[in-house]
Write a structure and sequence with these properties.
The complex is a heterodimer of chains A (about 290) and B (about 400). Chain A is mainly alpha-helical and about 290 residues long. In chain A, about 70% of the residues lie in helices and about 0% in strands. Chain A is built from 11 helices and 2 strands, in the order ααααββααααααα. Chain A has a two-stranded antiparallel sheet. In chain A, strand 1 (about 130) and strand 2 form a beta hairpin. Chain A starts with a helix and ends in a 10-residue tail after the last helix. In chain B, the strands form 4 sheets. Chain B has a 5-stranded parallel beta sheet, sandwiched between helices. In chain B, strands 7-6-8-9 form a 4-stranded parallel beta sheet, with helices on both faces. A 3-stranded antiparallel beta sheet of chain B has the order 10-14-15. In chain B, helix 2 runs parallel beside helix 12 and helix 8 runs parallel beside helix 9 (about 260-265). The longest helix of chain B has 20 residues, at about 305-325. The chains are: A mainly alpha (about 290), B alpha/beta (about 400). The interface between A and B is large, with 41 and 45 residues.
């Protein structure tokens, strides 16, 4: 029984990464209608950004937590302005192909210079060590990841669903021409939204740097699962993707305990089942 | 019109005929380096193995004697079906004579079968499974650098004898992991230890926390990592995080390469025991080879034992070609010739090839240095013990290779 609690908690930790990444994807899809396959590569860039900040400029984890999402977010906005914006109104397939190509290029460049086994990044000294919860030894850093990503997820949800800025955003996707007529700069809002989604990915990258190796393929390995999470949660549903992210982390954790061989397929089996029963995803609405 | 068409067809036929210009008795050789070029094993084999192969071509001196040697490469993505497809095309269409490297045991076993079927030649450096020279041995395959028996009898025996008498395995869920767990279990039990449990994880796992918690709960004194590359790196890093090493359990990184130690950093990796058959800083020969290799690598990495093995195996192949004076384009014949010659090169020293295709050379038990002991980049290992060639590999009388039965 103790082991079970431990696995639940571990699942929740992995779920935080799924939640942060699928949240970014949901925001981008909901607002821009783009299936952003470059998400994993930008998540990886966030982690590398943290590594460069530490080893190049001597700026520690806490600076990276702020600087990396902004820097990678700006890179994302440049991508949106120069490439993605030309695809507005076209079939989803174009956006998918473009972002997939961007991801391959970014990963290829990083792999050329850094190989595939990656670089070490230490846990910040304030968060080192762990505490004994009785049923398991919880590394403090992992606890921090769960709490921090929960806060970020809720803040993003609040920003989009409950503030005036969020209302503009949602209106702009519903009817861009009408919103423009009210004097709101819609293209700029779209760019900022893409930047926000990418920033969330980079933030997840920084959070995962001390846990995983900082590797060029760290995003490619994760992104497929995250897409399954988004599909299960319902494309474009913000709360849905957050909840599904955490829930699937837990499901995966339990699978690793009861039948480890299936742990990297269980998410996809669930995806198939959900698509069969409710093709719009658990929280999605038919349009 | 008809004339034009027939001329075109004749032209094409001629072009095709000259395109397949590999005839027994010429001096044309084609080497195909087949490995993981982009995934979790790319640093321990990958493009570095191609560089090693090119160095072997240059050092053989054959091009000066009028030989034409080409090195091509491809990415098998650690998938047996992809690996076999590439190898088949190489053999049938591109007339490749030697398949070199081929890490990832599941791919190696499949490619070895194909090499036998096509009378081609597999010089395997990267794969771990000892099955390649046991039940799956072949007259067309030579297994060069190391195998799971070596690892088990190096790290496994050493740790058990120094008090780690209960083991729990984290095993990569494919042919290599299974072979390594099996061979290590045998070595641990022979040394008086006991295996209390095991858990299989998928190849290329990012998060090991669930598996590590199970290992922790087992209370075994040693946690054996029957995996490789990125999987080993992640498992070791996360074991430190979950307080496994500070809680008194010891990690046995059964297969670990210098690229993995480099990725982990000495702070995390210090004190780990590992078994290798090559280290760049062993002697003058290895140092000279490694320096030249390092200069050619984009990220200036030192060679792993797999990459060194690609160099060594091809060098021996070229020696055999040289003594024959021409390329017979016959895999089994080349293997038979290579088996009659003792191996000798600056990288692995002197050795020999057993009738089952197993290359014998010494193995070394190393300990990873602490950051204060290391004098500079890539100064990572200190030698703990040298395992003589006859103890590092399956003894012939214990080999289950069908080739040995007459």
């Amino acid at each position: 029984m103790q082991a079970l609690y431990a696995q639940l908690l571990v699942g929740l930790i992995n779920g935080s990464f799924y939640a942060l990444l699928s949240l970014g994807l949901a925001v981008i899809f909901g607002m821009l209608n783009i299936i952003n396959f470059a998400h994993g590569a930008l998540y990886m860039m966030g982690a590398f950004c943290a590594y460069f900040l530490l080893n190049g400029l001597g700026l520690n984890y806490w600076y990276a937590l702020v600087i990396a999402p902004v820097a990678v977010g700006i890179f994302g906005m440049v991508l949106e302005r120069t490439l993605l914006k030309w695809l507005a109104g076209l079939d989803h397939l174009y956006g998918l192909l473009l972002t997939f190509g961007i991801a391959l290029i970014i990963q290829g460049v990083f792999q050329n210079y850094f190989g595939s086994s990656g670089l070490p990044y230490a846990i910040p000294s304030q968060l080192q060590g762990g505490m004994n919860l009785g049923f398991m030894f919880l590394p403090i850093y992992r606890g921090w990841v769960v709490v921090f990503s929960l806060v970020v997820c809720l803040a993003t949800w609040y920003l989009i669903e409950r503030t005036r800025l969020g209302a503009y955003l949602r209106a702009a996707t519903e009817n861009p021409n009408l919103v423009r007529a009210f004097g709101i700069n819609v293209p700029r809002m779209i760019t900022l939204t893409y930047g926000l989604g990418i920033g969330l990915a980079a933030l997840a990258g920084v959070l995962s740097a001390p846990i995983n190796q900082v590797r060029p393929l760290m995003g490619a390995d994760l992104i497929i699962v995250v897409f399954a999470v988004v599909v299960i949660g319902g494309m474009g549903s913000i709360m849905g993707s957050v909840i599904t992210g955490f829930a699937l982390g837990v499901v995966e954790g339990l699978t690793k305990y009861f039948y480890p061989e299936a742990s990297n397929t269980v998410v996809f089996v669930l995806m198939v089942l959900v698509l069969l029963v409710k093709p719009t995803g658990l929280t999605g609405r038919a349009t | 019109m008809n004339k034009k068409l027939s001329a075109l067809m004749l032209g094409t036929a001629l072009a095709l005929a000259t395109g397949t210009g590999a005839f027994a008795g010429d001096k044309v050789v084609k080497i195909g380096v087949l490995n993981d070029m982009s995934g979790l094993y790319a640093d321990l084999a990958g493009p570095g193995s191609v560089i090693a192969a090119q160095m072997a071509v240059e050092d053989s001196g054959l091009t000066k004697k009028g030989w034409k040697i080409d090195v091509i490469s491809a990415d098998h993505q650690n998938k047996p079906d992809i690996g076999v497809n590439i190898a088949r095309q190489w053999i049938d269409v591109d007339k490749v004579d030697v398949l070199a490297d081929v890490p990832t045991s599941s791919v190696a076993l499949a490619v070895s079968n194909l090499a036998k079927e096509k009378n081609s030649l597999l010089l395997d450096s990267g794969a771990g499974t000892s099955d390649l020279t046991n039940k799956a041995c072949s007259p067309n395959t030579i297994h060069w650098t190391y195998d799971t028996y070596t690892l088990a009898h190096g790290t496994g025996t050493a740790l058990t004898k120094s008090g780690g008498n209960t083991w729990f395995f984290l095993t990569a869920d494919y042919a290599f992991g299974a072979a390594l767990e099996r061979d290590t279990t045998a070595a641990v039990e022979a040394a008086g230890g006991k295996v209390v449990g095991a858990v299989k994880h998928p190849l290329n796992t990012a998060d090991f926390s669930s598996f590590l918690l199970q290992a922790q709960a087992s209370k075994a004194k040693v946690i054996g990592l029957a995996n490789a590359g990125g999987d080993t790196v992640n498992a070791i890093k996360q074991a430190a995080e979950f307080g496994i090493t500070s809680g008194g359990q010891k990690l046995a990184s059964l297969l670990m390469f210098i690229s993995d130690v480099h990725a982990l950093g000495l702070k995390t990796a210090k004190g780990l025991n590992l078994t290798e058959t090559f280290y760049w800083d062993l002697n003058d020969g290895t140092r000279a080879f490694s320096k030249r290799f390092q200069e050619r690598m984009k990220n200036h990495a030192m060679p792993t034992m797999i990459q060194a093995g690609v160099y060594s195996s091809l060098l021996h192949y070229f020696k055999a070609l040289d003594s024959l004076g021409e390329n017979p384009h016959d895999g089994a014949k080349m293997v038979a010739k290579m088996k009659t010659m003792p191996t000798d090169d600056p990288v692995f020293g002197k050795g020999s090839i057993e009738p089952n295709g197993r290359v014998l050379h010494p193995a070394y038990l190393f300990e990873v240095k602490s950051p204060s002991e290391s004098k500079g980049p890539w100064d990572y290992y200190k030698l703990v013990a040298t395992i003589p060639a006859n103890e590092a590999f399956t003894p012939l009388d214990k080999s289950t290779c069908p080739l040995l039965k007459k």
